[in-house]
Amino acid sequence: MPIPARLAKLLIRTGVVGLHPGVRKLMGDGLAFLKYYSSRVLEAPNEDLKRTQEAMDVGSAIDLCLGAPCLIPELRDHLHSLIEESHGYPPVAGLLDLRRAFADKLRRENAMSVDPEKELIVSNGVGQGLGLFLDAFIDPGESVAMFDPCYFMYRLAAQHRRQKLRLIPTTLEDGRTRFDERAFAKALKGSRALLVNSPNNPTGGVFTGGDLERIAYWCKRRDVLIFSDEVYEHFNYGEHAPTIAALPDAQRRTISAFSFSKTYGMAAYRIGMIVGDQWLVRPMLVSMLASAPFVPTVMQQLARRALTIPTAALERRREEFRRRRDRATSILQRWGRTIDQPGGAFYCWIPIHNLSMAAHDLCVELKKRTGVAAMPGESLASNGKSYIRLSFAEAPGVWEEGFQRVARALSEWNARPSSKAA
Amino acid sequence: MPIPARLAKLLIRTGVVGLHPGVRKLMGDGLAFLKYYSSRVLEAPNEDLKRTQEAMDVGSAIDLCLGAPCLIPELRDHLHSLIEESHGYPPVAGLLDLRRAFADKLRRENAMSVDPEKELIVSNGVGQGLGLFLDAFIDPGESVAMFDPCYFMYRLAAQHRRQKLRLIPTTLEDGRTRFDERAFAKALKGSRALLVNSPNNPTGGVFTGGDLERIAYWCKRRDVLIFSDEVYEHFNYGEHAPTIAALPDAQRRTISAFSFSKTYGMAAYRIGMIVGDQWLVRPMLVSMLASAPFVPTVMQQLARRALTIPTAALERRREEFRRRRDRATSILQRWGRTIDQPGGAFYCWIPIHNLSMAAHDLCVELKKRTGVAAMPGESLASNGKSYIRLSFAEAPGVWEEGFQRVARALSEWNARPSSKAA
To answer: Between vectors from CA A274 to CA A90 and to CA A160, what angle results, nearest 5°?
Structure first.
């Protein structure tokens, strides 16, 4: 019998809940602290968060779990010469110099015309951008629409804010993300915002220009804001598609979040960009000031250097990752596991239906037996317990070795379907 | 006639509010976006936030506004040798190496025994620590107690989360922060948490060991959590006082937030530490994952180096700032403005009652006339419109020049009390 949240809170705050022997056993020493937790914490998807954190704890295993490419070689020389004594707090919205250079990139690459002083914030990665977006535009109890599967942070960040999820089922076909337009339009009804990510994490699916136009059309018709996670924009192996924020229907209702983590291999350096109409960016800046302001000056300087790297280098990088994608799927195929070719990003989304084992348990076993960390699908999709995600973004040689080990282990389990990780 | 928040939200969401010509004029082009804003944004202290941001925009003026000391010289040599290619995402809670070294510091300097794996998180400064604390432990509508005056972020961060403030009035006497114990105990009644900051920003007031014990006693008795902002711990010019988290009554109900920004002059590098019982730290880590996870690896490595600097260097730095404090107050005195000597931190909290001008306007005038940026008191205290804050943390020579100019300008205004910035 589910207890209403308010009653549960009362039972917790008064300590009554501690009379239950099961709760006492579960919380142990922590029971005394339960009464201090906010509703945000009490109603958060704590089990999911804990499991996700565990999965992210790669330790000494080969890391096919997280997707963090190596630093782009063109930046290496800059590293040592870069660091100078920085003094004082950087501007809350970020170094103007960097924002101007990024506005140039947006004009050149994304057909977006943006005022760097009012429509652009430097953030601590896309993660912070998403959190600020959800804080600024969605109340607890209101709904956020997102495609399923999607990056685990989307659900966790929304649920942690006590917001409701509207999931739009998708499939991967020839590298494209496919969805039913009627189901999509229905999910938008009553939603405050839609989260878009193309190329998609974890499937690698890409939206075509036509898809994006339909999405923008419905968002306008339903008056829904868009958060577009552009983190894989330089890892699209098919036809070029426009940036959704550049489409007329989407223009003034979209916050785009760009990242240096994947394109330049700067995950460890934490630079993201929040871009949108000034009336959408402004409340996010206010939220930033009241939550986690200031991005390290040095990291912003490094990002400024990154923007001087010629486009040809990013082209070469994309070609390298396209070859990796081909190689990754052929390794899987050789071991009897054929998957749909991802059209972008650097993940393989691998079904494990036949293994009679949930993805989380499988990943624990895989790590133990093969020394490779994979990402279990539970936090990435509704049907995620039948999928694992492998990243091919690790260093050359390393990722291939990891893929070989995992593909081989899966094929051995395959041969013994009833032997539950015996 | 104040409109209830729910009704206001309805009027905004339906667009009815736009029929009011005043609102149309105020919002202009932004009116169409108002309906997208969350209650968090609509009910935030937006005017305060905007003014604070404006005040922080120092431009080319001498910066006596923000308090960011220069980098400690012992770290300069490390800067160039430091940066190496970092790969992948750092652990959500921070580099274990750094957390271990900080646990050693806490044992040595603060008489705190902390498990670095479970009771310590590396954060993007104390600002992020405060936000995570408020998210994890306080619901919208619940109360947070804080001493008045206090750092502007305390009020703004709480109000932005739709939490209520309980202000405890304080005065500065011989460098000590004084408060009425009965009023204090009353403010705690029904509060979920208390924010403590000693030495205090902006007054420079310090709590004695006895004060801290009384505070801890009442927090325990009222079952209130404590957030202790230890950012000025190395800038205490009087008797050594214990860290509140080390007191028996406070131990298991306190989150301490430490910072590298002031001690080592690392404001631009953004490293803070969140420390407390694992049952308090854990939900904050979860909130971090769902809002702005990951602190740049390189910045954490720099912080690790900072912890190798011998204590004697921090002693010398404190002595230097004590001399600055003496010099700062004597400059003010020479121009006829005697203030209570601050016992710690690096601010002078200067009354301007006699100037018949609000602090915000005065600071705008000061910047224009003297080229010095000062912090207006409005966002720092209930009676803040009669105070400005001057920082003496700027580079040697620079801050003195700034103090001279401001003190002189104030004295000239003094002489013409009725000439409203004529």
So the answer is: 100
